[in-house]
Amino acid sequence: MNRGTSRLFWSLTRPRKPFKLVGKLLLAAVVGFYALMAVSILLLRWVSPITTAVQLERRVQAFSRPLPYHKEYKFVPMAQISPALQHALVAAEDARFFQHHGFDWVEVENAVNERRETGRRRGASTITQQLVKNLFLTTSSTWVRKGVEATLVPIVELLLPKTRILELYLNVIEWGPGIFGAEAAARHYYRSAARRLTREQAINLATVVPAPLRRKPGRYPEYAEIIAGRMTQMGW
């Protein structure tokens, strides 16, 4: 290979500066995104969210529907939420919430085995994962959303205590069209403050969480019995 051919070969194969620039910009965007998320999550130790990504998603979806959209949402401290509801949600959604660090690998394995044996799919998302989805992402089931969710969960577990994670979760999750949080759910369904909910009411509200846009409290007695049994096993 002569000198001219050699120069031409290296000029064609060496990385182009525009690609380097794009790579640097993408890296800066990723670093900036996670830095912003880390700061936002840290602030959640003391600041209650005014709104959430899922609330904004529902607002956007409402534009294409004929029925009016009315949001019910009031953030209240944990002391103003019935212990029965706190226990019911943990029993229903994430029994090992206080033992794991954001991912319940035992439940993931159980879900995989169940799908292999019966073909039925079921979720294994923890309370922390659901909180991340509600606060920062959307209800879509894309792999991109799930991937971003998985990278944010460890940050939440690192920066927020478990009690604060549960408090945020109870206040932002959906309990029906436009109904967000324990206080709004208690007032909408039972005309009661969240702190006054009975054990039975709390369990019935917990049955709604897996499909809040379709379900109503009191219509799933079999699932309510399962939740009640789990609560009893946990000493609640």
* Run of helices and strands: HHHEHHHHHEEHHH
Q: Over all CA atoms, what is the radius of gyration?
A: 23 Å
CATH class: Mainly Alpha
Regarding quaternary structure, how should these chains be classified?
single chain
CATH superfamily placement: Biosynthetic peptidoglycan transglycosylase-like
Overall mean pLDDT score? 90
Q: Any idea what the shape is?
A: globular
SS-derived structural category: mainly alpha
Number of domains: 1
What proportion of the residues form beta strands (DSSP E)? under 5%
- Give the % helix: 55-70%
| Number of H- or I-type helical stretches | 11
CATH topology: Penicillin binding protein transpeptidase fold
Descriptors for this entry?
236 residues; mainly alpha; Penicillin binding protein transpeptidase fold; three-stranded mixed sheet; 60% helix; globular
Structural summary, described in words:
The chain is mainly alpha-helical and 236 residues long. The protein has a single domain, classed as Biosynthetic peptidoglycan transglycosylase-like (Penicillin binding protein transpeptidase fold). It is 60% helix and 3% strand. It contains 11 helices and 3 strands. The protein has a 3-stranded mixed sheet, with helices on one face. Helix 4 crosses helix 11. The longest helix has 27 residues. The protein is globular. The N and C termini lie far apart (81 Å). The model has no long low-confidence stretch (mean pLDDT 90).
